[in-house]
Amino acid sequence: MHANLSLWDCVVNSKGHLEMDGCDLVSVAREHGTPIHVVSKRSLSANCDEAQRSLSRSLREVEVFYSYKTNCVPGVLEIIHGHGIGAEVISPYELWVALKLGVPGEKIIYNGPHKTKDSLTTAIRNDAKLINLDSLTDIRNAADVCRAHGLTANVGVRLCPSYGWSAQFGLSMRNEEANSGLRLIKENGECLRLKGFHVHLGSQITDMSLFRKALAEVLAFVQETPEGTRKDLQYLDVGGGFGVPMVREIGGIERRLSAIGRRPFRAPDPDQCPGFDEFGTAIAETLEQYTDLFKGGGPTVIVEPGRAITSNTQVLLLGVRVVKQRKIPIAILDGGKMNITFPTSFEYHQILAASRMRESADNSYKLVGRTCTPSDLLYENARLPTVEEGDIIAVMDAGAYFTSFSNDFAFPRPPIILLDNGATSVLRRRETFEDVAARDSLV
To answer: Domains of the chain by range and CATH?
Structure first.
């Protein structure tokens, strides 16, 4: 039995094929070739609107910024920005893309554990809404840039709580590092304007208690800072990491047990994944305990979702090229972990036979890519109907990190096609051999 296709806004059409946004995905795959990414404009637009609408119900003031690292495809980003969502960038390249797309500085947040002075100069000159400083070095560099060019910058401080991601990100609240950072900003107060605090806890988070505990720790720290530090604070940037229903992390032990027991991975329970409403409520209820920290009774909350906006809007379509009969049959696909499906090495993703949706998924297959390494493994045990050469396999929830992690190992990268109410358009053409070799020279 297939998972609920409405989770991806998909249906099975009269041909027994997987259909998304009015487009037969098998026909799209055969017209444009595989491997290929397809993006539903309808689903992407709906997710953008739902994120803002739901969070606004719980939070008095909230602004949404999309995490570029999740899916930095200009055509996708353009649609997202068209719905009023800003840009959260972590690198000079992502900052450049945002500016090329015409995103104004007031809709850009610059994050990341290290920011070059050149990129800081660009962000400050373009009046970025917030530059969240991650280290004492970041603070010094921002001050140096401001003085060198006669500029001022709106900055936040990224804090490292006890919960969530590792201590490599942000300034520690458990030693004097965070307090030293605040003093350094105050010493450079003529050019650095402290506007808020930032925290980011991880990816694919479904446990609301993690948000509550981490935010309480951050707000308790802020409460202990001098009154002068807090007086101009406007923003609480809570990051992103919001989970999606049909993705979950797969640990190494579970992967080994699956290989030994020849069983497919357990699918996530969609009902256990909170939505934007629940994230907003968790943030709001925690803030209510610290209403005296910010001017006007509360800060503007900034959220930086990535996966929760684009994950279920994109599907990776792969062609079955070879089927080898073994104890567990091996299906060799025209894309695998070594170039375009790397997230499947650590996450569960639903696998569907897009060309055989009315047939029962009663067979186990080992799904592999087409490079000459046993590491090119998509799934050890995927449950599918009987598949043949030429069938189309759909990897769902490919809108988060699939294109970001893709590479040209042995094969050029695939195209990205926008689906829009039965019509298609090219967001990124298929990479050619010439594209792959364009930067190389012979001596």
So the answer is: 5-40+311-437 (2.40.37.10), 42-308 (3.20.20.10)
| Per-residue model confidence as pLDDT tens digits over 232-285 | 789 999 999 999 999 999 988 888 887 787 788 889 999 999 999 999 999 999
Residue 1 has pLDDT above 60, yes or no: no
What pLDDT score does 260 carry?
Answer: 80
Pairing of strands 23-24, 18-20: antiparallel
Distances (CA, A) of 5 to 1, 2, 38, 48, 270: 11, 7, 16, 20, 12
Question: What would the two tokens of residue 396 be?
Answer: 């769902």
Q: Please, what's the largest Cα pairwise distance for the chain?
A: 72
Mean pLDDT of 71-100: 98
Q: What is the chain's mean pLDDT, rounded?
A: 94
Looking at the chain, the whole-number percentage of residues with pLDDT higher than 90 is 87
Amino acid present at 221: F
Q: Which has the closest alpha carbon to 315: 353, 267, 275? A: 353
At residue 89, the pLDDT reads 98
Is residue 290 over pLDDT 90? Answer: no
End-to-end Cα, the chain, rounded Å? 57
Q: Distance of CA 165 to CAs 170, 172, 179, 198, 372, Å?
A: 10, 12, 20, 13, 35
The β-bridge partners of 248 are 348
* pLDDT at residue number 295: 58
Residues whose CB is less than 8 angstroms from the CB of residue 412 and which lie 6 or more positions away in sequence, other chains included:
430, 431, 432, 433, 435, 436
Q: Would you report the helix, strand and coil content of the chain in percent, each value rounded to 5?
A: 35, 25, 40
Rounded distance, CA 247 to CA 256, Å?
19
Q: How far is CA 116 from CA 61, 63, 165, in A?
A: 31, 26, 23
The 10 Å Cβ neighbour count of residue 54 is 18
- Cis, peptide link before residue 374, omega less than 30° from 0: no
Whole-number pLDDT of residue 414: 97
